[in-house]
Amino acid sequence: MRVFAVDPAVRNTGYAVLEGEARAPRVLDYGVIAIPKTHSQSSALAAVRSHLYNLMQMWQPDEVAVEGIIYVQSHQTAISMGAARAAALIAAADHGLKIYEYAPRKVKMAVVGKGTANKDQVAFMVRALLQLSETPPADAADALAIGMAHLQAADPLRAKLLDRRLI
């Protein structure tokens, strides 16, 4: 299975492409789509959608995994995060891909073993588990973790640990 994983944000969207199964995932690509603050929010969202669409076109994933909605205290932040998520979902829908979402706590539990892990802990474990030569940027590490959680959820022996929701 090839999964395209997304940690959506308006300015710094993390993405990752993993292949294989939970026991032996292979990293094909990862990175951060950085949109300058000089872009309006609407043009930033269009750029995120366009970049993700092109990456999905290039990697031809079987499924897409996206971070689920998180609780935030600021309404403005919630609206912005929802818009970024929508850009990612539209890019995947344009390719006709199945989309799964994972709660951040479940992703952290799958990768670190602790649902309250911080970004540094997630990045460290992603590097170790995937045997990467360098620690990925935080947003890319989150996307890699989402991809790993998806592969675990697809594994019948591990599926009970993660709530896998099809959007």
Describe this protein's structure.
The protein is α/β, with parallel strands linked by helices and 167 residues long. The chain has one domain: Ribonuclease H-like superfamily/Ribonuclease H (Nucleotidyltransferase, domain 5, 2-Layer Sandwich). 46% of the residues lie in helices and 21% in strands. It has five helices and six strands. The protein has helices spanning 41-59, 75-94, 104-111, 119-130, 138-154; strands at residues 2-7, 12-19, 26-34, 63-67, 98-102, 165-166. A hairpin with a 6-residue loop joins strand 2 (12-19) and strand 3. Helix 1 runs parallel beside helix 2 (75-94) and helix 4 (119-130) packs across helix 5 (138-154). The longest helix has 20 residues, at 75-94. It is globular, with a radius of gyration of 15 Å. The model has no long low-confidence stretch (mean pLDDT 92).
Characteristic key phrases:
Nucleotidyltransferase, domain 5, alpha/beta, 167 residues, 21% strand, six-stranded mixed sheet
Strand content: 15-25%
Structural class: alpha/beta
CATH superfamily: Ribonuclease H-like superfamily/Ribonuclease H
Just give the CATH class.
Alpha Beta
What proportion of the residues is helical, as a percent range?
40-55%
Distance between the termini: 18 Å
Q: How do the helices and strands follow one another from N- to C-terminus?
A: EEEHEHEHHHE
Give average pLDDT, whole number: 92
Number of strands: 6
Q: Name the shape in a single word.
A: globular
Strand order of the largest sheet: 3-2-1-4-5-6
Let me know the largest β-sheet: 6 strands, mixed
Radius of gyration: 15 Å
Name of the CATH architecture? 2-Layer Sandwich
Spans of at least 5 consecutive residues with low confidence: none
Determine the number of helices (DSSP H or I, runs of at least 4 residues). 5
Any idea of the CATH topology? Answer: Nucleotidyltransferase, domain 5
The number of distinct structural domains comes to 1
